[in-house]
## 1
Amino acid sequence: MIRTTSLDLDDNASLWAATCEPGPASPPLMTERTADVVIVGGGFTGLSTAIAIARRFPDRGVVVLEAKRVGNGASGRNGGMALHWVNGVDATSEERCKRLYAVTTGAIEKMRSTIAEHAPHVRFRQDGCLEVYTDAKRAEEAQQKTEKMAKWGLPVRWLAGEELRKVCDAEGAVGAVLDPTTGQLHGLDYVLALKGLAISLGVTIHEESPVRSIEEGRTHVVRTDGGSVRAPTLVLATNGYTPRLGYLADRVFPLHSHAIATAPLPLERWKELGWGAIAGFTDDLDRIAYATMTADGRLLFGGGGNAAYSYYYGGRTSRPDDGAAAFAFVHDVLKRYFPKAADVPLAQRWTGTLGVTMSRVCSMGVAGEHRNVLYAVGYSGHGVVLANLAGDVLCDLYADHHDPWKDLPFYERRMGWIPPEPARWLGYQVMTRLTGKSPRTYEVDR
Ligand SMILES: Cc1cc2nc3c(=O)[nH]c(=O)nc-3n(C[C@H](O)[C@H](O)[C@H](O)COP(=O)(O)OP(=O)(O)OC[C@H]3O[C@@H](n4cnc5c(N)ncnc54)[C@H](O)[C@@H]3O)c2cc1C
């Protein structure tokens, strides 16, 4: 089967891109070559998978094809919050909570040690993030759950009153869960660190090499404008762009998150404006607002309502307009939470493509007639940790070693069906406008 891709990629205008030197580009693919593994996509998923396979199988040839520069997608445009849990999974039992927390702790720890060993310049602060509750009933439930989790030995803590105001004086915050081992990562710093590490392990990376077609078989043929790679294993590491490659178009939809960042201010000044010494927060709304504080004192803010997220007809992965109204909306949400910061000037605004599933739970597995297509997609806004974890998962699946992951909610998870256009676009508009929420299916603790 031959799948042709329809590319639709814009440039990365994120805060991370503006505050990071990308270094020399890897050369585009200009030959016909073979490899053991060909990976499409140079974000966290693609690079973490390349590294894991190159480490475990040093004799295998691994090639990564990236349409633009590595980190061009969400990995280089995110809020950088390195969080626990799997988005979309409401774990209720002690065993499940501990397992999910342990798996995501392992992934955060691995990122921390990769930085310490290979790239100490990567900007990463690990002083905790808050989940802020703005509704009294939801806050009460969250407090009870947090206290239960604390009894089970998880290091989470409920904050309210003066204790909360000291670290985050967000208007309307009733209480918050502090998860102290989470943090904030400079997305592009880390992508570039992974790129360097992958190359040092013998991985070949071709940038500016958009994949134009994929001929699936026992040996796949992956073609770009300049050449092709023949390989018995294909890895789809294209998250929100995957439907554009002709895969999972009825399972994953690209949702655009609008984000802004302020000019830098000293931390002392931020404390006066309502932000203390923590890396970030998300709120409790369906269309969450998220905020993180960079090492140089910029507040990065995104989401906060319907207008901050867009689905474009036909699953476009670039923004068709200047997004002015959406950015103004996000800025208003920032000002609503931190009114005293209303006059801090903005320095950056950008969008990025999230890969979203109906249940918001990601899926990692093996597909294809010959069971030789690996994929990890649909992190739905939680991919900083999960897309880095994906490297270990996909490496195990490549080695036909499934057992360590079988009990996890994302393992070969069946993603819910999403109708084709025009029903998809219409359904999205109607649902978001009538309810203020995005379409989703709720699944409690599979
Ligand atoms: C604005 C924003 C804020 C976010 N904030 C957070 C956060 O705070 N915390 C969190 O956990 N998650 C967050 N996320 C989500 C997280 O960043 C992603 O889930 C994660 O980066 C996905 O990584 P990935 O490698 O799978 O995909 P991507 O980083 O999207 O990489 C896919 C790559 O594939 C390339 N590509 C596409 N088509 C082709 C082709 N035909 N040929 C070759 N290459 C191709 C793209 O150029 C891209 O580089 C955010 C996302 C956005 C957009």
Note: The chain has two domains: 2-76+188-252+359-430, 124-181+254-354.
## 2
Amino acid sequence: MTETITKTPRLRAVPRETPLAEILSIVKVDGGVILKGFLTPDQIVRFNTDIEPSMQQLAAGSEHEDPDIAEFHGSNTKRLTNLITLSKTFREEIVDDDLVHQIGDATFLEESGTYWMGTAQVIEIGPGNVAQVLHRDLENYFPFVGMGPAGPEVICNFLIALTDFTEENGATRIVPGSHTWPDYTDRGKPEDTIPAEMEAGDALFFSGKLAHGGGANKTESEYRRGVAFTLNPGYLTPEEAYPFLVDLELAKTLSPRVQRLIGFRSQFPTGSPGLWQTDYAELANHLGLS
Ligand SMILES: O=C(O)CCC(=O)C(=O)O
Ligand SMILES: [Fe+2]
């Protein structure tokens, strides 16, 4: 008699040096992939050192009045934003990483044109925090829910583990295959999910079409810390208004591609003569960026 073995699907994990085409082909099938060793141990130490004072000052939980939004943000979760200003390691290395831009170019350039950063935040899930409601990150942009899998890619997310991510401490949970479901109002059920377990330094790269959510932290005293940043096409409004957060003199020190990610350069969506301009010219010229 042959035994039927039902295998729990696992997220595939590949070294960050894997050829781009292979990374993208995994994401196409699975909706996401773990990139092993995305950050070095040294980068993690330096990034954590940059943000530690701000993390200490930040209270856990959400001040949002809407209880659903507050729960989305997490009752015992710290979310630290404006990482461009707060961390040299983030602005000069993490968002200026060639692999990030190769993946961003491949995801957006042909279909949608230039892209920018939606948000970048440290997400630290503390003990007792319940699982986040399952969602697709593209729900920020409601019309794309109706388009389902046929719609364009409007968000992709790099979620980097800064501590180990375990099932117990709140590893992100994903719903395998949900990026291909015909109906995006169906976000899947908790029992459909698997945890994206990672070692510190690994990154979960995933499509805005993939249903997922932060996991419950069932530990007594462990804090699950990650940093997530998203990219979206230049025709969509980012979550964070970087030009109002980031000092112009600081922006001048950044690479042109990072300046574009944070709205200090114009956007050129496919088919558009340009967006986010000054006098129909490149914003960077107006700002005096070289
Ligand atoms: O923290 C996590 O694991 C995921 C958080 C998330 O998906 C979100 O806030 O959109
Ligand atoms: Fe999310």
Note: The chain has one domain: 13-287.
## 3
Amino acid sequence: MWERAIVIGGGFAGKLAAKALSSYFQQVNILEADREYKDPVPRKRIPQGYQPHVLLKSGEEAIEKLFPQFTDELMKNGSIGSNFTRDLKWHHFGFWKDRFTGDLNMVQQSRPMLEWHLQKRVDRVSNITTRYETMVKQLIVNRKQNKVLGVLVKSFKTGMEEELYADLVVDASGFGSKSIDWLKTFGVEVKEEKVWIQLFYATRLYRLKKQERLDWTNLLISPSFPENPIGASIQTIEENRFSVTISGYANDHAPQTNEEFFAYAQSLPVSDFVNFLTQAEPISDIKIYKIPNQVRRRFDLARQIPEGFLVIGDAHCRFDPLFGQGISVAAMEALELQSCLHQTKRLDIGFTRRFHKNIAKQIATPWEMAITEAFRHPKIKGKNSFLLPFKHWYTKRLYQASAHDPFIYITLARVMNLIRTPLHLFHPKVVTSIVFGWQKKNV
Ligand SMILES: Cc1cc2nc3c(=O)[nH]c(=O)nc-3n(C[C@H](O)[C@H](O)[C@H](O)COP(=O)(O)OP(=O)(O)OC[C@H]3O[C@@H](n4cnc5c(N)ncnc54)[C@H](O)[C@@H]3O)c2cc1C
């Protein structure tokens, strides 16, 4: 075992990375700027905590590998179980999907509940400590050997600065990470790929006025560019609550008032969302979160990143949240970290580069999926490949064909959950149906 690893940030990526590290280091220290939280409520430094957070199947499976029986614990404590193809009522590109019981059983809850349960599991690992109210301000690097030695921190409790030393430092400080600036001071340039989306999420919690049984657990009205640019979703969460969200791209105005929220609901192509609002009452304010860009930071392509310094989670790549990928990708990266540590005896020859190259492969698919969809919006532009028109044509047909073809729907659902590669969308049965069959079934 190596002596000590430091993890900057105790969000999802930080907690999961810490667990992966705990089998290979005597001590793992998570340094977290936020205060300790004793209840499953949104945290100050996680403003997106009010927004709905889906846990994809890939993320659930990765978390289970790191923390066995985690899903059971969630379910015992009030999470909601749902079957993806049966309990999601989903409208997209003009069609409702036919619903049926498939093999994708999901677990859902508010983000604070998910994170709080994970923190409780982290607290039970004897060689992981979480030091709260501790802000990392800079890396300490041995320039001659190009090796990270530790970090400089400031304690919000004492106001004191301190140097902490470690064999490995993992930056999991989220999208606001300062890694690129820190590395610049050591002469290392990291390029960013950005796709402007200017997306808003406007979310409000509701409860049903009367205890009625709905025939769905989640309702999703996906934006279908260019005709219906507004998206809407309702997610059932613990304690008989519903997380109700409206989203819009490219600088659309975010609804601030009850009237504006309702007006957006009425503008949707189907009435189910508005019907729900009339049956329910709000139990929170409208919380708005804006995401200007999707950003992929190319640590995998940068030269001379100090050995022993790794970047994961949103600090590495922030996706369009509409695809619900962030936590799951962070969990898959933590598993990759475990596997890289398992295969190495040394942290100083190429370990950093190898890890970043490996997770770049994991990031590539969700990144491609998210930016390809965004480019459908007439105002969202970027460096497009010549294949883009084909991808848009094929995936639109795929979405439409999946409405009435269970094989296509379950294949699509598995790819969206990142448990199958997009190559499965080119299965002969899928291609045949898309090219020859879908129109007949959908008229
Ligand atoms: C509106 C919205 C909806 C989303 N929906 C989904 C969804 O449905 N499903 C999904 O999987 N993902 C979703 N995401 C993405 C998800 O929120 C992120 O991918 C996830 O939080 C990333 O985890 P992280 O640990 O990398 O970063 P964060 O969760 O941001 O955690 C970073 C942590 O680092 C700490 N920190 C920051 N700087 C420092 C420092 N210098 N020193 C010490 N500590 C520091 C912060 O306090 C924080 O605790 C959504 C995001 C948004 C904005």
Note: The chain has three domains: 2-47+112-191+298-370, 197-291, 388-442.
